[in-house]
Write a structure and sequence with these properties.
This protein is an alpha+beta fold. Helix content is about 45%, strand content about 20%. It contains six helices and nine strands. The strands form three sheets. A five-stranded mixed beta sheet has the order 4-6-7-9-8, covered by helices on one side. Helix 2 runs parallel beside helix 6. The longest helix is centred in the N-terminal third of the chain and has 38 residues. About 25% of the residues are buried. The C terminus is likely disordered. The structure holds adenosine-5'-diphosphate. The site of adenosine-5'-diphosphate has 22 residues, from helix 4 and helix 6. GO terms for molecular function: calcium ion binding; phosphoprotein phosphatase activity; phosphorelay sensor kinase activity. It is found in: Cell membrane. Keywords: Kinase, Membrane, Phosphoprotein, Transferase, Two-component regulatory system.
Length: about 270
Amino acid sequence: FGNERLSIGVRAGALDRGFVLLLIEDRTQSRRVEETRRDFLVNVSHELKTPVAGMTLLSEAIDEARDDPEAVHRFSERMRSESVRLSRLVQEIIELSRLQVSENLEQPVLVDVESCVRDALDHLRMVAQDREITVAFTSSGERPTVYGDQHLLTTAVRNLVENAINYSDPGTRVTVTLQADADLVSILVKDQGSGIPAVELDRIFERFYRVDAARSRRTGGTGLGLAIVKHICANHGGEVSVWSEEGQGSTFTIRLPAAHAPEEAQPHQNPQE
Ligand code: ADP
């Protein structure tokens, strides 16, 4: 294996007592975790520097423009939107680092997926209206359930629908579809927006990765939304995937293992019948 990945050690003190203790440690995983943590810190400090520097400049500009109420108003508005973005960034950094630390959910419970989708859509009603985007929801009428965390699943759907709204032009439509079969619950978020170039598709789930940084910034994006979705799906034993074509739009699909009805809840079958 080579000492890159395995470290093997013998406890010498144990030899005189007639046995040998062999310690075998796989360092690959711990090294990877360490590297991920270090990269994350570098990314985070870089991402925080920009809005903080922007706010410092804006506060100086407000001070200098104190005799011009119109300019003061303009700079204050920009300062407000920067601070909203900064607090969202901090919130999402905390959320992502929590998800990265624990790969499993603490206390999964039975979650009604349709209520997560409806909560997410309720949150975004005003955003969609402001951007003149129609959001439609279709489902087969059943109420599929999964084991998981209601708040996290709502966040995952909200992130996808928010992106669908933000990367689409006014007058277009976003369709959210809930499907279920015996084993899988799927949530599809389809837009008629800008689409994503094929070469970028592999990278958009990386934290802080943006195809068009200026557009992401304009819509208050943090570059963390899809990384959060990816981790939430993984923590639920599921996955997220994307189909997209430039100029045609995108469809993001979350697939989660369906919760199976407990034995006692299943219809009783009389073996003599
Ligand atoms: P952001 O906060 O920048 O939206 P995300 O992690 O949510 O960050 O998304 C990463 C990048 O993927 C975005 O910056 C954008 O370029 C691209 N993207 C995500 N969703 C869509 C979509 N529905 N249509 C087009 N591009 C998208």
